[in-house]
Amino acid sequence: MKRARAWLPGLLLVSPSILLIGVFVYGLIGWNFRLALSDQHNPIDDGDFVGFANFVALWQEARWPAAVGNAVVFTVVFVGGALVMGWLLALLLDKGIKGESTLRTIYLAPMAVSFIATGVVWRWLMNPAPADRATGLNALFVNLNLDFLVNSWWTAPNFGMAAMALPAIWQLSGYIMALFLAGFRGVSEDLREAARVDGCSEWQVYWHVVMPQLRPVTLSAVIILGHMSLKVFDLIIAIAGKQIVADVPAVYMWDMVFEVRDPAKGATIAAYMLIAVAAFVIPYLVWSMRKERSEGRA
Amino acid sequence: MRNISPALGARWKVAGAAALVGVLAATACGGDGGGGDDSEVEVFSWWTGGGEAAGLDALIEEFEANNDISFVNAAVAGGSGTNAQAVLEGRLQSQDPPDSFQGHAGAELRDYIEADYLEPLDDFFEEQGLNDAYPDQLLDQASYEGSVYSVPVNIHRSNVLWYNPSVLEDAGLDPEAPPESVEDFVAALEQVEEETDVIPLSVGAQWTVDHLLESVLLGSLGTEAYNALWEPDADWSTAEVSDALDDFATIMEFTQEESDAEDWQEPSQRIVDGEAAFNIMGDWAAGFFDELEMTPGEDYMWAASPGTDGTHMWLSDSFTLPVGAPNEGAALEWLEFVGSQEGQDIFNPLKGSIPARTDVDPAAYADSEYLTWALEEWESSELAGSFWHGVTVDNRWKSDIDTALGLYLQDDDLETLQEQLAQAAQETE
Asked: Bridge partners of B214?
């Protein structure tokens, strides 16, 4: 009885959310997979179990590999770009620039903007019109006599999605900067001093002493950026709308569910997206749980 | 703390009770639909802005003045109807249909019909004499397996060539004699490119290229062959279709590079701004030019898109009668009103479209030079259904065509485009 008094109130407190998450998150994930394994290709039929047929059939279509390719290009450029930008900004601030708090606020500000709003502005900035009709960034390049920089941005086939990642980098690098800055500040000054006494250059201090301690921060940053990038939807819709040139899995899924009304196909795409995100997140969860255990915190 | 907590408890009880009542009321709202007494009619649409909302409001006012039925406007805003369609789908699936909803006449309604969501309206058309008021070809193209399922309230035209007369003059072309065939059109585009600095043909994002494709197919194949493409046994792999797609590819060479970054308004605006010579867009462009306060005949002119003179490629907003409509009697009153000459003449001048009936009063449209022209054409034209606007294909077929076209715009592979179009036509049967 005494033991129940210890754990019962806590359980009662969290049980509603456990129940709600169980039904509305994991229950619906299960329901989505059940749908993806059926042949319910319109809203009316009940659909029979067909195993992984939908998962295979998707790769036979020209649109799906193209959408996956776009998502990969976007992810690589976005994650890499935001990491490098965020790290550089953090490094500059860490070196003790004047007016640090103002700059920090400025760099963080894009985080407060929604992807839709970012997209509307960058849609104009990245207008692909050629030099004689240029607007946005192309016009800037023309005025600076840098005509060779004028390009077709996100409308270029194959690697256009790299341009699409620019607004996302712009929006997230301030946040990554904040993560790295906290990491830099967490490295004790004694360690740096010791390294300097041993004759390290400033660069070597960062590379050999500070950076190795930032691995957990870097990993968190990659997880955050990676899962955002795999499910990117609103930024694409704001800039390009529904077009093959900028097709990604999330846009494809939306098209299948709400326009074509093919529940099984939409669920299949959703399942692939969940698997892709899980491939990022689950190893991270396992890793951090092990780490906490080995540190005796759990 | 102890003094406050009883009051807090009471407040929580009140809040909880209020929430419960709210939930009950909400479910009751959905539940009491079954036994409607025809004192109200709930009509679902995505007309919430611009000329569409103005037209609907005028209809509502007149309808309520003449009937003892109160109108419940269940319009859902946003997404060019996409949001509304998602809401509608949910309501139909949970057997809570509105009394009537708006949809594009034709194959776009096929999903609803196959799901038994819609009542056939053949008897209603018979009673109201609508079979004589609408053109036979319209009823034929809007029917599914011999039955009509919706009452068309207006007609938009898809195959319109818009052009800037002064740009044509600069290029040495006669604005009074726009290109009549696809060959003439290509020649005119070449001439514009050689003689001037403007874009010969402006297009926008992928869907406006779909829109261009249907006009080129119609112009290149002719009306009969175009209409045959949407029949169940249609063959898309013929040499005629190849030629039509060749024409399409040639025409696309004269468009601007940055088209992906524009919707339909920017390419239209390029016409009146003198930045482009030609544009093919539906007749909602006329309403857009009115908004920009442009003068027809001076800032812009129009004609049937090349090779389609005498054919009206149509799309139509229409109203339906869902199965299990709570106030069926009132819904039929509404359908009678929107199908009537009076209702259509109230609605269409505001929406910027022409009535689907052929026996209307031309005076109501005399203010607009474009609508006058369109009305004359409508009464004398052959008809073809617009595929992009849901007349001839259901959503899946439409999406397949859109995907094939989008891939073609990436890789320029015309053969694959034709193969995929042929495959899309077969899969839908």
From this structure: none
